[in-house]
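We modelled the chain as a single entity of 105 amino acids. Its sequence is:
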Amino acid sequence: MSDDQVVPVEESKLKATIEDKLFLVKYKPDKESHIEVDQAKFKADTLKAVLYICPAKTYELNEETGECMVAFENCLECGTCRIACSEYVEWKYPRGGFGVQFRFG
């Protein structure tokens, strides 16, 4: 196939939502969270960026308490929160054998 040929893409693949794509990620959940949030520092953060930057929507605001709830089972291990919100998010890789199951080949 030459470089100037266009390969058609299935229309359904173009219309897939982020939720549809996340559903395809293979994950082995752990019982222990690999993410810790310092709630006092989170509450003091006016931007609360961690609620918006995570592609897997791992973080959610508890409207009643003002605390950050963490659904660590959703984490894609991209590390975005670790970089953008390092003042109050402590993120580490899940224990061996747990987390995103990467496919090679």
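As a brief sanity check on the tokenised model: Strands lie at 27-28, 35-37, 59-61, 68-70, 89-91, 99-100. The chain has five helices and six strands.
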